[in-house]
């Protein structure tokens, strides 16, 4: 599995510490968007041809490749379904989240 | 070398001499010959830059952002509808502190469709955090582009170099095109404070909550406040190299003037002719041409207006529901000053209607005859 590091939230005390432009301030380490999801992508690895299209198309960089296969990061996946739509072998199913 | 070139090409030569590294532009109307010449220069090797042809001005500015973020000196040009289509990305450039330099030809906003001069396109980008330079001649256009790179890169704030449609953009004038090696000496390569490389990737423009956003904007304003002094300093340095001073404003016979006209762009030069004419007739008039609109040179304007008895601001633009936009700035510059200087606001030349020395004679006449303007807005040359 992807290593989950423990991060400290970046809080600048003075404007002098704030970078000139909004760059790498770590806000997304804490703004986990997975909770927005109504439907979740479930990948059937049996039929996966390792083409990487889901990885490439994911607009939120919530699919990463591990041991040459795609893995969904459910902490961030918003459930847009683009990966399922683009998958050439249709091996990604969008499954309703349980309440 | 002295060349006879049109205003559009003065922008192109400025971008070339500034050694732009990436130029992204939309090639069709409201585009002008600015990027046509630059694309030729890129194709024949005169300019070692990447020319990116895009499908809209929105994309043009987006491409400029990416290039600037990667550390390239970046240039684009547009007009009217194209500029306003970029509006969202203008905030990205300034908020991202990317020193993009852009030429904008002042053309009236549609509808009705127009390619004639009017400042509403650029002035409606007033609050985007870009510096705005209004030029009065083709020479000034070229000189401003080179200086804009320097000032922008020092402050990490983008610049818009603005010229009137037709009366500059398509008008040929003699322009001294400086030698490349002298420009190189004046303007060394861009050294970004922060840049993104594949070796050192960063997330740019990510979610920024209330605890940090405020400071980012504070910092942008604080840097912008340094611009007037830096523009003057850079102007003096440029003058040492090339013998021409840009600065914040042009003061034409304001010293002992009782009535001062405030103008911008090419009509500012027409006003000079009118001032000389009226001086011959014994009227003590002067012309203050504002070259830099953002940051607005409040201090300089106050100083020059100190001795005046009356001031007439001429706007080739309008903020509907209030007044001319330069008028508003001058009015707020004067607030809290000791004098209760009568300020007259004129609107003239919208959509490219000619502003001639006679227009200024009419303006001066009105201002002279009345203690205060009889209407909030005095319209000059409108068919009523």
Written description of the protein model:
The complex is a heterodimer of chains A (99) and B (384). Chain A is α+β, with helices and mostly antiparallel strands and 99 residues long. Chain A has a domain at 32-96: 2-Layer Sandwich (Alpha-Beta Plaits), CATH 3.30.70. Chain A has two helices and four strands. Chain A has helices at residues 53-57, 82-86, and strands at residues 39-43, 63-66, 69-72, 92-96. Chain A starts with 38 loop residues before the first strand and ends with a strand. The mean pLDDT of chain A is 91. In chain B, 41% of the residues lie in helices and 19% in strands. In chain B, β13, α12 and β14 (343-348) form a beta-alpha-beta unit. In chain B, the strands form three sheets. Chain B has a seven-stranded mixed sheet with strand order 3-2-4-5-7-6-12, with helices on both faces. The model of chain B has no long low-confidence stretch (mean pLDDT 97). Chain B has two domains: 2-242, Thiamin diphosphate (ThDP)-binding fold, Pyr/PP domains (Rossmann fold); 249-380, Rossmann fold (3-Layer(aba) Sandwich), CATH 3.40.50. Chains A and B meet through loops of A and α9 of B.
The largest sheet of chain B, given as strand count, sense and whether it forms a barrel, is: 7 strands, mixed
The first-level CATH class of the largest domain in chain B is given as Alpha Beta
Largest interface: A-B, 14 and 22 residues
Structural class of chain B: alpha/beta
Give the secondary structure arrangement, pairings included.
The complex is a heterodimer of chains A (99) and B (384).
Chain A: E1 39-43, H1 53-57, E2 63-66, E3 69-72, H2 82-86, E4 92-96
Antiparallel strand pairs in A: 1-4, 2-3
Chain B: E1 2-6, H1 7-17, E2 22-25, H2 33-44, E3 50-53, H3 57-69, E4 74-79, H4 80-85, H5 87-95, E5 101-106, H6 120-123, E6 131-134, H7 138-155, E7 159-164, E8 172-176, H8 180-186, H9 210-242, E9 249-252, E10 259-264, H10 267-280, E11 285-290, E12 292-294, H11 298-305, E13 310-315, H12 325-334, E14 343-348, H13 357-369, E15 378-380
Parallel strand pairs in B: 2-3, 2-4, 4-5, 5-7, 6-7, 10-11, 10-13, 13-14, 14-15
Antiparallel strand pairs in B: 1-8, 6-12, 9-11
């Amino acid at each position: 599995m992807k290593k989950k590091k423990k991060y400290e939230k970046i809080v600048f005390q003075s404007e002098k510490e704030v970078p000139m432009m909004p760059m790498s301030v770590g806000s997304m380490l804490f703004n986990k968007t997975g909770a927005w999801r109504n439907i979740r992508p479930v990948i059937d690895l049996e039929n996966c041809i390792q083409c990487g299209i889901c990885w490439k198309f994911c607009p939120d960089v919530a699919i990463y490749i591990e041991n040459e296969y795609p893995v969904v990061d459910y902490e961030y996946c918003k459930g847009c379904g683009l990966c399922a739509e683009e998958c050439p072998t249709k091996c990604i199913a969008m499954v309703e989240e349980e309440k | 070398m002295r060349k006879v070139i049109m205003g559009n090409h003065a922008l192109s030569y400025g971008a070339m001499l500034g050694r732009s590294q990436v130029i992204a532009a939309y090639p069709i109307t409201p585009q002008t010959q600015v990027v046509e010449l630059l694309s030729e220069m890129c194709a024949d090797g005169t300019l070692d830059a990447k020319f990116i042809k895009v499908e809209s001005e929105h994309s043009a500015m987006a491409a400029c952002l990416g290039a600037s973020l990667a550390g390239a000196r970046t240039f684009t040009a547009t007009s009217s509808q194209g500029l306003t289509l970029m509006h969202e990305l203008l905030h990205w450039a300034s908020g991202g502190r990317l020193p993009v330099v852009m030429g904008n030809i002042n053309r009236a906003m549609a509808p009705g469709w127009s390619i004639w001069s009017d400042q509403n396109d650029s002035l409606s980008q007033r609050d985007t955090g870009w510096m705005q330079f209004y030029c009065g001649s083709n020479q000034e256009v070229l000189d401003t582009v080179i200086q804009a790179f320097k000032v922008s890169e020092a402050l990490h704030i983008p610049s818009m170099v603005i010229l009137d449609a037709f009366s500059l953009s398509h008008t040929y004038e003699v322009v001294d095109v400086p030698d490349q090696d002298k420009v190189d000496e004046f303007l060394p390569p861009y050294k970004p404070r922060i840049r993104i490389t594949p070796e050192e990737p960063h997330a740019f423009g990510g979610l920024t909550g209330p605890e940090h956003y405020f400071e980012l904007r504070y910092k942008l304003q604080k840097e912008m406040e340094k611009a007037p002094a830096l523009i003057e300093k850079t102007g003096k340095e440029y003058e040492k190299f090339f013998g021409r001073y840009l600065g914040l404003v042009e003061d034409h016979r304001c010293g002992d003037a009782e009535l001062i006209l405030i103008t911008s762009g090419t009509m500012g030069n027409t006003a000079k002719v009118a001032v000389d004419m009226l001086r011959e007739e014994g009227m003590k008039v002067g012309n203050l041409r504002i070259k830099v609109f953002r940051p607005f040179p409040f201090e300089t304007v106050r100083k020059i207006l100190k001795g005046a008895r009356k001031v007439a601001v001429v706007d080739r633009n309008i903020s509907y529901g209030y007044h001319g936009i330069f008028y508003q700035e001058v009015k707020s510059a004067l607030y809290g000053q000791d004098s209760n200087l009568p300020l007259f606001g004129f609107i003239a030349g919208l959509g490219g209607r000619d502003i001639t020395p006679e227009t200024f004679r009419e303006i001066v006449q009105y201002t002279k005859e009345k203690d205060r303007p009889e209407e909030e807005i005095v319209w000059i040359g409108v068919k009523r």
